[in-house]
User: Which sequence fits this backbone?
């Protein structure tokens, strides 16, 4: 018996089908129970090297400066921008949702002159418009989100990065939602700084954020005329902890590093190609099931981000109530709509460990039943339609 004023830790079993976090494999959770060592322990320094090598594989890059930022995806977003930008610099941001707007907000806070090229929600930022804006404004930094989690679109970036390079600008790309679930090749993309998050398609616990900087970005760090405004996110100082001379900067969150190492091992054992194919199959099956119900997605069909599906809420249905029922009756979490899509969509994430045929089928069965009970006029046969997409490939 536990006294009422010291209740047990709540430990509900969830199936995480929202915009992140995603389900974490048991062996990754177990890795966090490994005894703590200090941040300068020789074994810890070996671990840093191994994690950096894993990150290079996942990012598909040979960039030397590749490490984990000490925080969630936002720490990498903020770190990427504040390390490259000095007050008065021009920063061009392509925005088509919440996360692009955040990049612009951070750049403004860092004292930059921010120019935004905006796209309607559910569409990509037009690469031609970006190219024209780069030629016109001559920014120091161009920032763009690869997988916009608020709208479920996948943004082509290579053309934008090439235009930026032609005009001497550095390109920053946000792959927080997409890395490990959708193809993204850092070296082929031409991007100078790419960051991600731990808890989306990489299925690690939240708390650390992969980032990689190419040689031109490193050069920018050296050429700064004033120190980075953030001590904690200063990449030059983080570099000196991760690499020689291994100087103390902050106490590493050891348990999260263990989880990251084990989680990236899971990713690389599966192999990026197979992992990406698994995400794509789950997306196709979800679409087939939704189609049977007569439900569509709010994103441009030509640029859909398979790992995040903005599912349109049928007319007359209370979006919030359905989400609550999925959680209460099935332990399934899906995300609410954000910004302009609030109340209009559910954001169904199929990320990392969560992207499994069983989860897709369970979600569709639950959704079909709940929508019928809520009085929505929907079709039937969602599970059968999805199952036929998996065919014999279902695991
Ligand atoms: C989730 C997300 C972030 C923010 O990451 P946090 O881990 O929540 O800090 C940034 N960009 C995109 C595209 C995201 O999906």
Assistant:
């Amino acid at each position: 018996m536990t006294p009422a004023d010291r209740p047990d830790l709540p430990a509900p079993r969830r199936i995480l089908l929202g915009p992140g976090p995603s389900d974490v494999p048991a062996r990754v959770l177990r890795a966090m129970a490994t005894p703590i060592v200090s941040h300068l322990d020789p074994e810890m320094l070996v671990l840093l090297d191994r994690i950096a090598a894993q990150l290079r594989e996942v990012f598909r890059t040979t960039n030397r400066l590749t490490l984990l930022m000490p925080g969630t995806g936002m720490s990498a977003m903020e770190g990427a921008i504040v390390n490259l930008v000095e007050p008065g610099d021009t920063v061009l941001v392509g925005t088509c949702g919440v996360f692009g707007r955040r990049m612009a907000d951070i750049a403004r806070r860092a004292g930059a002159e921010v120019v935004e090229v905006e796209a309607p929600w559910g569409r990509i930022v037009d690469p031609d418009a970006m190219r024209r804006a780069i030629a016109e404004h001559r920014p120091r930094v161009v920032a763009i989100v690869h997988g916009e989690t608020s709208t479920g679109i996948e943004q082509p970036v290579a053309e934008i990065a090439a235009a930026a390079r032609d005009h001497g600008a550095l390109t920053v790309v946000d792959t927080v939602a997409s890395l490990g679930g959708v193809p993204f090749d850092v070296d082929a993309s031409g991007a100078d700084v790419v960051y991600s998050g731990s808890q989306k398609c990489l299925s690690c616990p939240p708390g650390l954020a992969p980032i990689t900087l190419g040689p031109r970005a490193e050069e920018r760090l050296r050429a700064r005329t004033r120190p980075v405004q953030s001590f904690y996110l200063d990449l030059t100082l983080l570099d000196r902890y991760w690499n020689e001379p291994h100087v103390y900067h902050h106490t590493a969150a050891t348990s999260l590093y263990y989880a990251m190492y084990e989680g990236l091992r899971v990713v690389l054992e599966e192999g990026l190609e197979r992992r990406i194919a698994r995400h794509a199959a789950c997306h196709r099956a979800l679409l087939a099931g939704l189609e049977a119900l007569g439900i569509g997605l709010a994103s441009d069909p030509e640029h859909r981000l398979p790992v995040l599906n903005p599912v349109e809420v049928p007319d007359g249905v209370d979006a919030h109530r359905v989400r609550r029922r999925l959680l209460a009756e099935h332990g399934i979490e899906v995300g609410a709509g954000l910004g302009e899509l609030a109340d209009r969509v559910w954001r169904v994430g199929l990320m990392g460990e969560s992207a499994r045929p069983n989860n897709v089928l369970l979600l569709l069965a639950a959704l079909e039943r709940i929508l019928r009970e809520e009085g929505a006029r929907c079709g039937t046969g969602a599970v059968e339609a999805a199952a036929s997409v998996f065919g014999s490939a279902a695991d």
About this structure: The chain has two domains: 26-269, 271-394.
